[in-house]
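Hi support team,

I've been running sequence recovery on a batch of backbones for a student project. Most finish fine, but this one hangs at about 90% for roughly twenty minutes before it completes. I'm not sure whether the input is malformed or the queue is just slow. I've pasted the structure tokens below so you can try to reproduce it. Let me know if you need the job ID as well.

Thanks,
M.K.
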């Protein structure tokens, strides 16, 4: 092989390596985020699957998606039942979860990345149920209560003894989208849930072909106020936590 050909081949190899290096430099986040997962639940209006086109919508979902794009992440947000989403982030590294309630009991078991929302806790029922009167939390024991399984409301009510595991009048359900039809069918008296405002069920009601006025808030549990966060397990590196936090701030 002549020296000219060898030089030409070496030049070609050098150019290819230099090009690949430059491309990698242009996308510094790709390798870091390649195996990272982001999970959440179907929780309108913050993050929910639109039944009309099956796309993920909602204010916090949009912000997280924008941050992921900025970081060079190509994976899609996974929408899981809440209990499974929570177990996934606890069992595996490099899994982020958003709209997780920050509580004293959870403080040291997660890395808290970014606050996504604040919510109150209220009791919702059919407007026609004028017999439902709740002036204190102890009144919840009088009614058939539905909650989202393993969310902060469920856990708080269990801790305070207002409802009991195995109680036939207490219904923890895995998917929020199933709770409203359950309530509308009269299979529960009231739904204890977090909410942003009193009308954040309106869109779900319309999707079901129902008048939003059929549902109303009958009481607030004023001593329970929830801050929601993007968070991750302790196994995830601090570098990823910091980078994701910066991307969320930029996407705000």
């Amino acid at each position: 092989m002549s020296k000219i050909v060898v030089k030409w081949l070496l030049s070609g190899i050098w150019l290819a390596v230099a090009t690949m290096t430059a491309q990698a430099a242009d996308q510094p986040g790709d390798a870091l985020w390649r195996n990272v997962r982001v999970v959440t639940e179907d929780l309108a209006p913050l993050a929910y699957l639109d039944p009309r086109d099956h796309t993920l919508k909602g204010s916090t979902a949009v912000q997280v998606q924008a941050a992921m794009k900025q970081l060079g992440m190509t994976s899609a947000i996974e929408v899981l039942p809440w209990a499974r989403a929570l177990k996934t982030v606890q069992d595996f590294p490099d899994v982020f979860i958003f709209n997780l309630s920050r509580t004293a009991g959870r403080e040291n078991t997660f890395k808290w990345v970014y606050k996504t929302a604040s919510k109150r806790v209220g009791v919702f029922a059919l407007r026609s149920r004028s017999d439902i009167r709740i002036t204190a939390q102890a009144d919840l024991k009088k009614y058939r209560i539905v909650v989202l399984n393993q969310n902060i409301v469920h856990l708080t009510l269990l801790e305070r003894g207002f409802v009991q595991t195995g109680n036939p009048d207490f219904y923890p359900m895995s998917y929020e989208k199933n709770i409203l039809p359950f309530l509308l069918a009269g299979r529960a008296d009231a739904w204890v849930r977090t909410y942003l405002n009193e009308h954040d069920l309106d869109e779900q009601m319309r999707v079901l072909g129902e008048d939003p006025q059929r549902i109303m808030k009958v009481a607030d549990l004023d001593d329970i106020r929830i801050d929601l966060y993007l968070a991750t397990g302790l196994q995830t590196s601090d570098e990823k936590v910091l980078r994701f936090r910066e991307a969320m701030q930029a996407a705000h």
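--
Follow-up from support: It reproduced on our side and the slowdown came from queue contention, not your input. Strands lie at 37-40, 48-49, 56-57, 78-79, 95-101, 111-126, 145-148, 170-173, 190-195, 215-232. No action needed from you.
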